[in-house]
Amino acid sequence: MTPEDVAKLETVGAVAVSPDGTSVAYTVGGRPDVSAGEKDGGYRSTLYVTNGPNGGRAYLPEGATPGSVTFSPDGSMVTYAWSAEDDDRSVWGIPVDGGAPRKLAGVEDTAVRTYAWAPDGQRVYMLVGGQKDEQRAKERKAGFNAIVYEEENTFNRVFVANVGADMDAEPTEIGVPGYVTAMEVSPDGRFATIASAPTPQIDDDYTSKRISVLDLSTGAVVRTIETPGKLGDNEISPDGTTMSLIAAVDENDPAATVLHMVDIGTGNITAVNADAAEAATDTEWLADGRLAVIVDVGAESELRLYDKGGNLLQTVEPGAIQLSSLQSGGNRLMVTADSPMHPTELFMWDGQNGFMRWTDSNPWLAEIDFGTQRTMTYTARDGQEVEGILIEPVDGVPAGGAPTIMMVHGGPEAHYKNGWLTAYSMPGQVGAGEGYAVFHPNYRGSTGYGVSFAKQHQGDYAGKEFNDIVDAKRALVAEGITDGDRTGITGGSYGGYASAWGATALSEEYVAAVMFVGISNQISKFGTTDIPNEMFLVHSRKWPWEDWQGMLEVSPIYHVDKAETPILIMHGAEDTRVAPSQSYELYRTIKVRKPDTPVRLVLYPGEGHGNQRAGSRYDYNLRMMRWFDTYLKTGNRSAPLPGPRPDVGMGDSED
To answer: Which of 64, 292, 325, 364 is the most exposed place for a label (fewest CB within 10 A)?
Structure first.
């Protein structure tokens, strides 16, 4: 694979199944192929509807990127949220049997973020953005455009509207508590569950979001599900009595990975797999009352079926694919999944043990030579077993070992699965094609191995968690896979922290580093991030002022005196999660204190905590691989800096 291949990848996105299970709507999307001269832009997708494999028919005009795709309750229309020209984002529908799309409902001067149908198909509940402030608009136009930090965010609102011939020109607002981010209407239409946080701040969304039961006839909240920590997916059972809920077990649990069953009538919660070394990631009820659940067990996934009491009925091993999401209609279950050979595609579960592939979004991948990919378990220095995924060089491992890239995930409350591991910021098969081995460690703090494993990194910034990455290197060298003198490290966010730590405190271990939206100073990071409470609860477990010196000593800037590793630092200029100042600090400290160490800082205007536009992504991929080719493949820490700008092929671009 090449960076140009990565630039043109497409994947299956949203999926919906008609109520009777006969039709499936799905989107396939990607970004403009700027490597081939297409005009830069963000994500775009096409809506398809099909009754079987490889038969999808495009349903919307070119350029329409729909959101919140579903079916009307009678299955006659595919519906979606979309912004037509000169109109606010509204609810639209298009007949399954053919016809023109039409607007079904909307709220003037605001955008529909998501929506839910009433079971009778006569009404739709819309979650919309805050009300426009005309006075503020006038002030902005006059030049009074000051930003009052965290004080002027608006709350989402919920409206209900009649659809069809009697479409409401002015939908009715329903008062809801807090900042609502999602809602689901019960099968009988009597109530809805809403997920809300006290404020629109992302910190509250992470740490304080709760599920409430809303009586739709009165607009009153009749019950709040008192979960103690982070929330994940929740779904109402077909009989309306039970809610499946993926949630954390306590406020210090780093991630929502435990399956719970909630009695909606009483609010009682029962944990199903609280002590298991695994992570539940998505749920979906079938019409017959069975609950389908995707469960990641380490680097592999499986499908499980439970009854509403939480009793396990069936476990299905999916073979070479890794499951990511579920959607059902009737008893038909559709699954999105990826594998080491392809990114996310659409599959149908056959009801027994098999998965039938329905889409092939990148048929050209059949012509690509792939490096062998496999899971690997090694023993860390203190005896802890740690798992990761290895991609070997396409032409095999040479004598003496291959140059190796340690690809470190963020979070750290996340984990790699043994599926598709190539992206604009992940070398994956591009690295394998250029002779690199690429290792993806699920170091301590990762999910997929149970709550206890995920908590092992807490209160130990840059300790056991990053030692696990060095111990992975040791194991790879011992197996003859890795050249110990040619090992590099990269990652974004917390993986960027690991990369900065590897280039400073552990500089002797890594000959090259690429840091993306990463942390360099744990003290100033606290004061500039939008998730300070999340940092305290599930990572540091102490405030900076409780141990200023300790926080400084787990910061890469403190160890720049050891920095001999060439480091490429890249950051979105509008990042609010990890402020760009974190990258400025590390860059400036290295430039002043270690002027002979190769360092470069690249900022992406308009980008946040990860690049969204096609041009920014392609540029990143080119820079990352060029940096590793310059310093890691050669093993030469003193090689001259590559030129400031890679060749992005502008000679072939459109006007």
So the answer is: 364
Closest by CA position to 563, among listed 511, 519, 634, 498: 511
Which helix or strand (DSSP H or E) is residue 259 part of? strand 258-263
The distance of Cα 421 from the centroid of its chain, to the nearest Å, equals: 13
Compute the average pLDDT of residues 76-95: 92
Structure tokens, 183: 């809602």
Task: Give dist(CA 232, CA 335) in Å, integer.
Answer: 18
Site of tokens 């639209």:
92
Phi, psi of 258 (to 5 degrees): -100, 130
Tens-place pLDDT, residues 124-168: 999 999 888 889 889 999 999 999 999 988 999 999 999 966 667
- Among 370, 365, 337, 335, smallest CA distance to 351 is for 335
Query: What count of other Cβ atoms lies within 10 Å of the Cβ of residue 123?
Result: 21
Query: Degrees (nearest 5) of the Cα angle 183, 185, 187?
Result: 150
C-alpha–C-alpha distance, residues 247 and 257, integer Å: 6
Name 470's Cβ contacts closer than 8 Å, sequence gap at least 6: 506, 509
**Listed residue (303, 312, 349, 354) closest to 330, CA to CA:** 349
pTM of the model: 0.96
**CA 468 – CA 448 distance, rounded (Å):** 16
The pLDDT of residue 166: 66
Mean pLDDT of the chain: 95
What the block records as the tokens of 126 is 């819309």
The Cα 624–Cα 615 span in angstroms is 14
* Strand, coil or helix: 602: strand
3 state DSSP class of 33: coil
Residue 182: alpha-carbon gap to chain centroid? 17
